[in-house]
Amino acid sequence: MLEIACFEITSAETAMKSMADRIEFCAHFELGGTTPDFYEFLHLKRTYKTPIYVMIRPKGGPFFYSEAEFIQMKSSIISFKEAGADGFVFGILDSHNEIDEAKNAELLELAGEIPCTFHRAFDRTSDLEKSIEILIKLGFKTVLTSGGKSDAIQGKENLKNLIEKYGDQIEILIGGGVRSENISALKKLTGGTSFHSSAILKYDTFVTEGEIKKLKQLSS
């Protein structure tokens, strides 16, 4: 399974015409991804068949949100759900960088049957095994992770451990610097089968169709 992170509509259109299995649609690459434009989402949904997972994140920075920001997240889920989102990507931590069970549960309830991914806020938590058990209990279908390190290659041992222990209970989506030059090694070292990449090459700004093709071929 190959998910391509798309931070603007040009990249999203490239990815949706390509071999990507789904896209994660968001805005603001420089902030690590925030909630995308609603009307751009509508255009993509009406034009292409590739599933779209929508990032629900009102701002960059820490994953601890004010009450007003939390209300904004709930409102975004309702709007994108009504417009046909195939999945949601979010993650709320408390002030100690641990998973906020109550707030995440509220968002999952609003999403209903739509599958939800807990994003790389997971990598900020102090105990990955304890955190993944909470996510499974809450009902997340996927966790996007680099194994608690700055990128997936550095986190390979943790990823391998998580996949061995929990891979049959939750989709472990390997992300963080995943590119065609390292995806084969990551697959071999971790036993992973789900990968997340922006498919943006060095010195580039947009997703590259050739890179998506290579990623898909090497991960299959």
Automatic annotation (TrEMBL):
Cross-referenced InterPro entries: CutC-like, CutC-like_dom_sf
Localization: Cytoplasm
Primary location: cytoplasm
Gene Ontology terms, MF aspect: copper ion binding
GO CC terms in record: cytoplasm
Keyword annotations of the record: Cytoplasm
Keyword Cytoplasm: yes
UniProt keyword tRNA-binding present: no
Pfam families: CutC
HAMAP family: CutC (MF_00795)
Family recorded in the similarity comment: Belongs to the CutC family.
Protein name: PF03932 family protein CutC
